[in-house]
Amino acid sequence: MNQEISQQLQQQVIEAAHNRESLQLVGSNSKKFLGAIADVTPLEASGHRGIVSYDPVELVVTARAGTPLHELEQVLAEANQMLPFEPPHFGPNATLGGTIACGLSGPSRPFSGAARDYVLGVKLINGRGEILNFGGQVMKNVAGYDCSRLMAGAMGTLGLLLEISLKVLPKQATEITLIHPAPVTEALEIMNHWSGKSLPLSAACHDGENLYLRLSGAKTAVASAHQLMGYAPQPDSPLFWQDLKEQRLPFFQSTLPLWRLSLPGASAHLNISGQWLIDWCGAQRWLLCDSPPALIREQAQAAGGHATLFRRGADEIDIFHPPEKGVMLLHRNLKQAFDPLGIFNPGRLYPGL
Amino acid sequence: MSSEQRADSAIDATPPEIAEQSVATKPSLDKAALVTQLQAIVATDAVLYDEEDLRPYECDALSAYRKLPMVVVLPSTVAEVQAIMRLCYQHHLPVIARGAGTGLSGGATPVGDGVVLSLAKFMSILNIDPSARTAVVQPGVRNLAISQAVVQHRLYYAPDPSSQIACTIGGNVAENSGGVHCLKYGLTVHNVCKAKIVTMAGELITLGSDALDSSGYDLLALINGSEGMLGVVVEVTVKLTPMPDRAQVALAAFDDVVKAGNAVGAVIAAGIIPGGLEMMDKLAIQAAEDFAKVGYPTDAEAILLCELDGSHEEVAEQMVMVREIMQQCGATEVRTARDEAEREAFWRGRKAAFPAVGRLAPDYYCMDGTIPRKHLPYILRRMGELSIEYDLRVANVFHAGDGNLHPLILYDANIPGELARTEAFGGKILELCIEVGGTITGEHGVGIEKLDQMHLQFSREELIQFHAVKHAFDPQGLLNPGKAVPTPKRCSEYRQLPAQGETNKHALASQKSGQPS
């Protein structure tokens, strides 16, 4: 059945190649807002679903790209395991393929790593209609170039993901959240201070008023870290982190453009007027404002990072921060290497790519 | 490329220049002219061209493969590297970047008409930022030197290949090096935030950033493990990890390797991710004990070293669990290190395992496959059978936590035929790894050593896709040519061969100079 679906998908890509058509890869459309959507034929990939193999003791799961993320997370949870990068869903039927293609990670990112860090292997269809396997189902693998991690965050512009193998980890035994009222500059200092210690920190956020610090780990380790740090525990904290990850906190309910600034975590607060929410221990800063995009990008770049116009952008503004010239050339060459006819998601990442 | 050619490529899969791409067209500079031009870029004594001076560069730690380069050049600045690359690009000269030469797969083997670009002079630590927990280092900085330089901040650089005393960070990026702490702390790719590379065309490019990600394709992930074939790494920003409050190691002995293998799975099933989890078999235990005298139980069939790190409470809590698990899995003895000295002794034995095994025979050949852990009993049984079949002893050292095997085949190159048998045996082990869903190399790289096994792990189309990636960075195929990915031509020739081991195209020699992890 699934083999049939993958052959159908392959056939559609081959036909598109022959007809010189492009395709828009679609899972559940939960991240449709991210990246420019070209007016081309959609290729529905969510039918190619299901877990291919999962052995908790191996700490590896392989699933088809159309597998709903909530299904995968449920299966892992039953074995007391998890995706350590806490991917946001942004919709009830988010697929694993879309999650990896967008390369998004949740609040645990600075402490546990990003989506790309947990990708071990992929099976994909390239722009020549070939089904290819890269990486594998093992923790360490340096045979060939790392084409599988390259797919994380490529926004589906290099190939259609069919299967993904991920490293998974045991769930933490205990989790508590500490809350401390502080202005943003003080909050940035405090979070970076604690994250430099050997503590079981698993998330650090500032919502404009309060600093939230999450501790996850062995019961004793969490208890002793709590004692060391002080601060009051926050009830209902799992809900807070869920809402932060899924952008359901009141902050996100706005009509203003939402910017994502990816910055060095310890960098100073930027002087751009707007509403700020700091996540990732300072390394991911959400900004609601309608300042000129060039100004925001300039400041982000000067601070050593980049800015994405995450939601509610205007059509004429690039969503992703354009890379430097030499890096852009490599993007074009790699696009040519995987998808010489420009079939997959044209322009979704950068104009003309 | 015209639209007609594009359409063809969609149907026939590959643009012809990629399909048959290997080494570039003939160089347009002779040796004397090259030396002169290089001396105009770098100091006169930073260009080596006499045979005597070139000799130390003829191989890396896989010393069986030797080739004198035409010239070795040792630049001191990034601008010099760029100028050298531009010169070589212009004249179609192959370039092989080289760090400390500790690689085990021949990745830094020179080509006869090429230039070896040694990064040995790039030895500075440029910046340490304790609050951001990063260090900016030049590529020739030794792995261990990074940790030593940040120790006063209670930080360290986590990846620790066994060659860490000698190997450099530039080489670590090229190989995506691992070590004994990968399961918990990741490989090089997980611990590098930013890298500056010089392309074959001489352009300086920054991959990654000081933030946790950068816009666009993850070129930083791609450059890790690319075996020096996509660009020359000239600066690396590494992530530093806070030192744990405490590390404690348990040594468990088993009368059966299968029981030891099961214990590894049981620890992980209990939700514990050890900082290090290593296995050694009887031959390796005995050799290590004879060599290092650290008190290993030499009557055991296998031992596990299980290190836990973290807060005092966490380590104490989990150590109780680990001891119980080991006993439930049939350990004949479980010891925890009483103090730091004993902990170091437990590890000293493991770290000495390679040289120790090396004393058992004139030569040894180190393999580097990774497998799903559940297949360990099968692999060990088959390896035992093959050991009898090929009449060669094999000692096993195993990064058990992440399934990375280092079988060491003992042989004597002076006995006629033994080399060929060793090579055949090694090939069989790699085939076994592929058979159970693993890989032919976990951390040592393909280099030139495992080019043939690449055909077993990857299809023709996959290999061609790799060549296309190479082409995206280095269209002329000048950077470290002939490594890591076999040409499609070699592919079809290899598949027509009767069987592994019936040919002996490559001679292996002693790897005792090497320091595998």
Uncertain regions of chain A: pLDDT < 50 for 5+ in a row?
A: none
Shape of chain A: globular
Report the sheet with the most strands of chain A, covering strand number, pairing sense and barrel closure: 5 strands, antiparallel
Number of helices of chain B: 20
Strand residue content of chain B: 15-25%
Termini separation of chain A (Å)?
33 Å
> By helix and strand content of chain A, what is the structural category?
alpha+beta
- Average pLDDT of chain B works out at 89
Total discrete domains of chain A = 2
Helix content of chain B: 25-40%
Mean pLDDT of chain A: 96
Determine the fraction of residues in helical runs of chain A and give it as a percent range: 25-40%
Radius of gyration of chain A: 21 Å
Q: What ranges of chain B have pLDDT less than 50 throughout 5 or more consecutive residues?
A: 1-24, 498-517
Q: H/E element string of chain A?
A: HEEEEHEHHHEEHEEEHEEHEHEEEHEH
Describe the overall structure.
Chain A has 353 residues and is an alpha+beta fold. Chain A has 2 domains: 2-170 and 330-338, Uridine Diphospho-n-acetylenolpyruvylglucosamine Reductase, domain 3, CATH 3.30.465.10; 174-254 and 256-311. Chain A has 11 helices and 17 strands. In chain A, the strands form 5 sheets. Chain A has a 5-stranded antiparallel β-sheet with strand order 3-4-8-6-7. The longest helix of chain A is centred in the first third of the chain and has 18 residues, at 2-19. Chain B has 517 residues and is α+β, with helices and mostly antiparallel strands. Chain B is built from 20 helices and 18 strands. Chain B has helices at residues 3-12, 16-19, 31-39, 51-54, 78-90, 143-150, 169-175, 182-185, 188-191, 219-223, 257-269, 282-292, 312-328, 340-351, 353-358, 376-389, 418-435, 451-457, 460-473, 488-496, and strands at residues 47-48, 71-73, 95-98, 115-118, 125-129, 134-137, 155-156, 192-198, 204-208, 232-239, 241-242, 246-254, 276-281, 302-310, 333-336, 363-366, 394-399, 404-411.
